[in-house]
Amino acid sequence: MALGKGLSSLITEDTMSQMKQAYIANLPIERIVPNPYQPRAEIKPETLVELADSIREHGIIEPLIVTRKNETTYELIAGERRWRAAKLAKMATVPVVVKEASPQQMLELAIVENIQRSDLNPLEEAMAFEQLVSMFKLSHLDIAKKVGYSRPAIANKIRLLTLPTDVKKMLLNEELSEGHARAILGLTSQEAMVEAARITVRDKLSVRAVEELVRRLNQGKKDKPPRKNERLIDEYTQKLESTLQTKFGKKLSLQRSRRGGKIVIPFKTDEELNRIYSLLTD
């Protein structure tokens, strides 16, 4: 993957040759508006505060990339995080490189810059790649050449958009990794995906453990009987466990096998024990 190279190496030569550019050392910051094709869904406030402190001390080392929208206004192509931090730092002007760019080029440059900086969540990357497909009719191979990924990597990232909404939120909030999410996509029902994701977050499962969970869930759907001492992890068991946890707490675990099972309700204090006893005897 060519992410160590500069922007010009990741955007096609034809694209770069079509983009005239000029440098402005001190462009009034109020004349810049956000990129409507910005692929980042969220910028964490705490990272902006840290960057704003750095900008106050050292200034903006790397210019923002903008395109002229009209006689007085410039539209941001790349550098939204630096732009927001500069505003937070009360900077009156910022250095910019002005490029003539089409909407497609604006999106491409914004994606590439964020990938180079590792600023995009996998779901944000997927949404940006889907934009290139739906809005500009690019193939997965076209996108792969532009951003330095393989074609299968582009296809796998776009598949993340088929996850249930609850699972996508977990991925966006970094509760799940891309590896976890891709493993969960191996399930066939949306309900099973959501439940598997919740178990993954709750039990802090590794990607390998999630792959095994998915395998066993799919095996159960094919009516393949488990071994007598093998723990059952089917949707019914998960639903029962979830219902019990709403009453007794998230640490409760329900373990079932062909030979029976057990319910474990851990406690740390006498007060917690008395509460459990009261709930059981009510």
From TrEMBL:
Keywords: Chromosome partition, DNA-binding
SMART domains reported in the protein's UniProt record: ParB
Domain ParB-like N-terminal: 25-115
Protein's UniProt keywords contain tRNA processing: no
GO cellular-component term (any): chromosome
Gene Ontology MF term list: DNA binding
Gene3D superfamilies assigned: 1.10.10.2830, 3.90.1530.30
GO biological process terms, semicolon-separated: chromosome segregation; positive regulation of sporulation resulting in formation of a cellular spore
NCBIfam families, A to Z: parB_part
Family to which this protein belongs: Belongs to the ParB family.
Protein name stated in the entry: Putative chromosome-partitioning protein ParB
